[in-house]
UniProtKB/TrEMBL annotation:
Organism for this UniProt entry: Thermoproteus uzoniensis (strain 768-20)
Protein's recorded name: Flavin reductase domain protein, FMN-binding protein
Record-annotated Flavin reductase like domain positions: 11-154
One Gene Ontology MF term: FMN binding
Listed SMART domains: Flavin_Reduct
Keywords for this protein: Flavoprotein
Essential cofactor(s): FMN
Family: Belongs to the flavoredoxin family.
Length: 188
């Protein structure tokens, strides 16, 4: 049995991994905003897309600098991620207000966010305006991971965990138990 869902259409698509987009802004400051509407797009070239509301200061920062770091933050950064998403860099210098520790980048000007599981240094290669959002397509120029926290399966879930955004102040972790799907019959 199915019934039409009258809530926000995207609820069944959550929880979603949260990244923090760090960018250099027109005022010369560094800004940071969480974004859970993000996705890998293509393997070659390595590409990530992030939907950024055009009212966010980050929108202006990305228009200004054309690059960012995309930081995969762990579950224990929930309070910080929520706080970064509750004020605008237009009004608050988030780096000093939240005591953000920044990591120098190798390829882009925007720094990484210390404490992240992974830091993607990335350059905007395409944009698409849809509704209230500009979808930024980023080519990944460099990927760095916190030592020991990422293996061939992704984040090492007995050492760290992903910050999955549910709704509002609600976040989830990933259940660290793996599910091994059965091999289809006749396949090696
Ligand atoms: C966990 C979380 C995820 C969010 N995801 C997005 C997102 O994907 N896209 C977006 O435009 N805003 C998202 N927001 C809202 C922005 O982070 C928020 O508007 C922020 O204050 C913008 O900051 P800025 O004005 O300094 O750029 C999210 C907020 C939270 C707390």
């Amino acid at each position: 049995m199915y019934a039409e869902y009258k809530g926000k259409f995207y609820r069944p698509l959550h929880p979603r991994p949260t990244v923090v987009v760090v960018s250099k802004c027109p005022d010369g400051k560094i800004n940071a905003m969480p974004a859970s509407w993000n996705t890998p797009v293509s393997e070659e070239p390595p590409t990530i897309a992030v939907a950024v509301d055009r009212s966010a200061y980050t929108f202006q920062c990305l228009e200004h600098s054309g690059e960012a770091t995309i930081n995969v933050v762990p579950a224990d950064m929930a309070d910080l991620a929520y706080a970064l998403g509750s004020v605008s860099g237009r009004d608050v210098d988030k780096v000093s207000a939240f005591g953000l520790k920044l990591l120098p980048s190798d390829v882009v000007e925007a720094p990484g966010l210390d404490g992240s599981i992974a830091v993607y240094e990335a350059r905007v290669t395409a944009k698409l305006d849809i509704g209230e959002v500009r979808l930024y397509v980023f080519e990944v120029l460099k990927v760095k991971v916190a030592q020991g926290l990422v293996d061939e399966w992704g984040p090492v879930l007995d050492k760290t965990n992903l910050l999955l955004h549910g709704a509002g102040r609600v976040f989830y972790r990933v259940d660290p138990r793996k599910i091994w799907a059965k091999k289809p019959a006749g396949r090696p």
